[in-house]
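stuck on this one:
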Amino acid sequence: MTQTTRFIAGDWGTSNLRLYLCEYEPTAAATILDTRFGPGISQIKEDFEGIFFELTQDWFEQWGKLPVLLSGMIGSTIGWKDAPYLTCPVDASQIATGRVKFSCRGISFSILAGLRTQNPLGTPDVMRGEELQMLGWLRLQSNDSADGTTRRLFALPGTHNKWTLVENSSITNFLTAFTGELFSLLTNHSILLTNSSTGSSANSFSQSAFIDGVAAIDSLGDAQLLHALFATRSKQVLGEMASADASSYLSGLIIGADVMGASKLFGKVDAVTIIGEPKLTQHYAHALDYFGVASERCDPSQIAISGFEAIFEHLHEKHKHE
């Protein structure tokens, strides 16, 4: 008889907390039974324990002492416990082994290690949480009977976009881009967008204006993003661009620079897998298509659960004896 077990998986980042009640069977994909959302670590004054149990109390009441796997900034120096950074290349078993384990209110917790690397620029780089997406994708590929000679480049759009290279079931290298945070800073704390353009950006997106921004980056030659940004304002002032399109144009400049730069650093790839929220993944797909790079988009929640499942499988025997 197939044994069904349950566990709680959590992606606890700087801005958001996502908790998943998962049901696991060795012969089938994990099922998400319930989901809870909460504040990121930047919004909590060290009461991580209280927030976690407030959100999950009824799960424990119904199912007993479930093991908990957490990833993301919760394992940083400003999180619940300080988990180590593992040096790339790493695979699922190494990430599982590198966890920080502790007990709280009789519950067994594991906070997964982050990753560190010397990125293609030759500078140090770190990530926490995104590695689960890579492990999840690898697990799904294995379930689909893919061979073990994978070489794949990923884009994980967000506050800080991560370009991640996976080779032969290991995360071998990655590069962080300041894309999302730069867009937010320029949108809210610069003169590039007028009040009317910022007010309309939340509800509208102009693909043509976005592609105009990507094309402007492509035409820079030896110039760089810094030389192109002010045109977002001057085009509005001179009537060459509607204020309503300025946010999309700015997004095209920044994402276009990100895509073009990463393409040069990682070399030619057949396709890029984009994992993230639908709106951002669509923007990256537009930019990649402009530069002639095929892309596929994946649902981040299911991919992340597959990553936690890969870790849980490695720890399963230990969990049974705890």
User: Anything to note?
Assistant: The longest strand covers residues 28-39. The chain has a mean pLDDT of 89. Residues 179-298 form a domain with the Nucleotidyltransferase; domain 5 fold (CATH 3.30.420.310).
